[in-house]
């Protein structure tokens, strides 16, 4: 049964690039995610173990990162219920939107808890080894596909081969000059490359060629988020080195990194109107308008619009920029009327949902958890613990960068970052004299479990 779960976990990782598949079920945006369908297989493989061994303590480490976020989500229902009942756009009701968003969040939260249980059952080091192997093969897959795509820009035969391969993943066409890979668009492809890079640069086996290829393809993606991601991961790497050398208190690095990301996350939405103009590319106008509109909805109330409700406030306010963008017109007047537009910024969405007060609370809670990660991670004396610490920071920084471009909690980066950061903390606690007692609050089991 454990072997089946291990194999299903690998399949789930390999499914990450397939994020534009034809929907098989009607479950919102998740219906187009290959990761979603593969995760159902993983959950099925883990079901016998979950039924007999899952405990609240498996979820506790995740709550340390999400307790404020989850609390504000739950409070949104009674506080904003009247508004949710009134919200409607093209037959899409506000309350149903809240319930769908909540179910998506709960699904990923539960999936993260199951991964924590998986690590407890087979041991943290064994789980980490399994994850490294899965992401190694995913890296090989992405490098092969990206190489074929690039060669196809010059050779028609390779272009045809790539086109056939891409049709297996998505019906969306690719464009010459930007790396789409197997993903719906270049940004999503770059997101997965960043994940692979985090594992490649923190693996025991040094694979400089693999890491170099991943960086090159990230740069060739033409996605601005990829550039932000590489910069953020580099800053995380410097912070890890600084924490180990004790230049300033280790926890300060994690706190500063998160607070800086949350602060910078509002700069672009706040000043986005400066990017609005007829001389700007169509995508810039669309993104700038929507993220600024989401940001401005948060300014109207100290407690925001409520979880999943920002889109209604955005479509109620029609600005002049709609006339400049045919993409916006599709949501307001065209064939996508009734479909709430994407907000293109997790920071702007969060600010709009929970207002300045809630946004600050979420930033402080995540910054506190990151500070704790750095304090505990820098104390690791063995090589594997140091690598897990570096991986956790790398994944966290990649998500904080991706948050500038995507406004959804369904991004696996967020949950993988939290899982491995929680495992980093749990692994260090297993080595303390009070491990048996302490692990009740971090990861069930005892020190022997990590070597099982």
TrEMBL record:
<feature type="transmembrane region" description="Helical">
    <location>
        <begin position="134"/>
        <end position="155"/>
    </location>
</feature>
<feature type="transmembrane region" description="Helical">
    <location>
        <begin position="36"/>
        <end position="56"/>
    </location>
</feature>
<feature type="transmembrane region" description="Helical">
    <location>
        <begin position="98"/>
        <end position="122"/>
    </location>
</feature>
<feature type="transmembrane region" description="Helical">
    <location>
        <begin position="357"/>
        <end position="376"/>
    </location>
</feature>
<feature type="transmembrane region" description="Helical">
    <location>
        <begin position="68"/>
        <end position="86"/>
    </location>
</feature>
<keyword id="KW-0472">Membrane</keyword>
<feature type="transmembrane region" description="Helical">
    <location>
        <begin position="388"/>
        <end position="407"/>
    </location>
</feature>
<feature type="transmembrane region" description="Helical">
    <location>
        <begin position="209"/>
        <end position="240"/>
    </location>
</feature>
<protein>
    <recommendedName>
        <fullName>O-antigen ligase</fullName>
    </recommendedName>
</protein>
<keyword id="KW-1133">Transmembrane helix</keyword>
<keyword id="KW-0812">Transmembrane</keyword>
<feature type="transmembrane region" description="Helical">
    <location>
        <begin position="252"/>
        <end position="272"/>
    </location>
</feature>
């Amino acid at each position: 049964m454990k072997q089946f779960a291990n194999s299903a976990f690998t399949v789930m990782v390999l499914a990450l690039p397939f994020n534009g598949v034809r929907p098989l079920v009607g479950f919102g945006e998740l219906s187009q995610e290959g990761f979603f369908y593969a995760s159902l297989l993983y959950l099925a493989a883990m079901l016998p173990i979950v039924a007999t061994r899952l405990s609240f303590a498996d979820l506790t480490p995740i709550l340390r990162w999400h307790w404020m976020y989850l609390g504000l989500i739950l409070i949104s229902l009674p506080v904003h219920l009247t508004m949710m009942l009134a919200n409607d756009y093209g037959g899409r009701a506000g309350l149903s939107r809240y319930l769908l968003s909540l179910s998506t969040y709960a699904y990923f939260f539960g999936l993260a808890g199951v991964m924590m249980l998986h690590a407890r059952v087979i041991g943290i080091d064994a789980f980490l080894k399994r994850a490294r192997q899965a992401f190694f093969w995913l890296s090989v897959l992405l490098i092969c596909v990206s190489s074929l795509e690039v060669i196809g820009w010059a050779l028609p035969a390779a272009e045809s081969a790539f086109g056939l391969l891409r049709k297996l993943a998505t019906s969306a066409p690719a464009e010459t000059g930007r790396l789409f890979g197997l993903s719906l668009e270049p940004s999503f492809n770059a997101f997965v490359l960043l994940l692979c890079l985090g594992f490649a640069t923190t693996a025991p086996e040094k694979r400089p060629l693999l890491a170099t290829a991943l960086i090159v393809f990230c740069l060739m993606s033409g996605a601005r988020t990829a550039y932000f991601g590489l910069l953020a991961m580099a800053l995380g790497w410097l912070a890890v080195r600084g924490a180990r050398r004790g230049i300033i208190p280790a926890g300060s690095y994690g706190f500063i990194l998160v607070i800086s990301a949350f602060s910078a996350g509002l700069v672009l939405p706040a000043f986005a109107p400066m990017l609005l103009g007829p001389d700007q590319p169509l995508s810039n106008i669309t993104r700038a308008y929507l993220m600024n509109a989401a940001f401005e909805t948060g300014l109207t109330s100290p407690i925001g619009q409520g979880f999943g409700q920002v889109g209604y406030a955005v479509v109620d306010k029609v600005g002049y920029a709609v006339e400049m963008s045919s993409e916006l017109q599709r949501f307001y007047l065209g064939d996508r009327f009734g479909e709430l537009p994407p907000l293109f910024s997790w920071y702007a969405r969060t600010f709009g949902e929970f207002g300045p007060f809630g946004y600050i609370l979420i930033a402080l809670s995540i910054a506190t958890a990151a500070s704790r990660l750095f304090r505990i991670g820098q104390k690791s004396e063995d090589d594997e613990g140091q690598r897990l610490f570096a991986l956790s920071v790398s994944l966290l920084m990649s998500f904080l960068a991706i948050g500038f471009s995507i406004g959804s909690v369904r991004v696996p980066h967020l949950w993988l970052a939290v899982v491995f950061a929680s495992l980093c903390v749990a692994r260090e606690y297993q080595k303390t004299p009070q491990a048996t007692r302490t692990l009740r609050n971090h990861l069930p089991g005892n020190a022997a479990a990590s070597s099982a």
